[in-house]
Amino acid sequence: MKTTINASVKMPPALHARIVSLAETRKRTPHALMVQAIEAFVLREEQREALRQEAMAAHEDFLLTGLHVTAKEADAWLAELEAGKDVEPPKCHV
Questions:
Q1: Where are the bilayer-spanning segments (predicted)?
Q2: How wide is the angle at C-alpha 61 spanned by C-alphas 69 and 45, nearest 5°?
Q3: What is the dihedral of CA 58, 93, 79, 71, to 10 degrees?
Q4: What is the pTM for the complete model shown?
């Protein structure tokens, strides 16, 4: 059995009207649209936070080791990948 929590969201009347209109067009309930929108927002923000944490860890690793690739090296590698070539990433150096 799914457990749900009732929550109240205060919003401007104009936004509520837009949600109701869209729900009618989509043949869904306003509640269903709002749950879908909140789920999409939370997923996007979780992914953004995971990327931020990964970047912070990579920066910390760089500070500890000094290992890096230049922007030119990274750009050249990404261009190869974009062209459909399966190439190894450039080697890190100090």
A1: none
A2: 95
A3: 70
A4: 0.76
DSSP bridge pairs for 14: none
3-state DSSP assignment of residue 93:
strand
Which residue, chain included where needed, has tokens 């109240």?
8
Cα–Cα distance, 10 to 81 (Å, whole number): 47
Q: Whose CA is closest to 18, among 34, 41, 40?
A: 34
Rounded to whole angstroms, how far apart are CA atoms 56 and 58? 5
Find tokens 């709002």 and name the residue: 34
Report the Cα 56 to chain-centroid distance in Å: 16
Contact 62, 94 (CB under 8 A): no
Separation of alpha carbons 57 and 86, rounded Å: 26
pLDDT at res. 2: 79
What is the rounded distance in angstroms from the CA atom of residue 60 to the CA atom of residue 57? 5
